[in-house]
Amino acid sequence: MSLVRWNPFREFDSFFSPSTRLMSNFQDSAIESSWKPLVDVTEDASEYLIKVELPEVKKEDIKVAINNNYLTLSGERKFEKEDKKLHTIERFYGHFERTFNLPENVCEADIHAEFKDGLLQLHLKKSELPKNSQRHINIQ
Predict the structure, then answer these.
(1) Whose CB among 9, 21, 56, 109 lies 3.0–4.6 Å from 33's, allowing a Cys bridge?
(2) Tens digit of pLDDT for each residue in 65-86?
(3) For the whole model, what pTM was predicted?
(4) Long-range contacts: 71-78, Cβ < 8 Å, 24+?
């Protein structure tokens, strides 16, 4: 029998999470769950930069898509079972997904990504906003 520390906010956190964590049998198996990789979003004069930590995720297991002004990053970190007894598993494995609403001044055609050493960098180039982006409507 093993002791598990009780967290009174676990259910509360999962209530607001878009997907709940599904745990499989801990004895001799991996913990399968949905998880969210850590992300930093920064901005300078020419672009937005999204840095995503994806250690032990292969480039082939990452998908980046744009749909209806949303950028979605998804993929999977696979658990490779070894013939070793598991004592502690604190890292998450399984499917992940993050979605970002693109600002109006992002040029969707000029988004590019690079992946190196477990860090995915998404460069979202800014475009000029139309001069007449604000419009007043007369009331009759």
Answers:
(1) 21
(2) 999 889 999 999 988 777 888 8
(3) 0.67
(4) 71/99, 71/100, 71/102, 71/111, 71/122, 71/124, 72/97, 72/98, 72/99, 72/100, 73/37, 73/97, 73/98, 73/99, 73/100, 73/120, 73/122, 74/98, 77/35
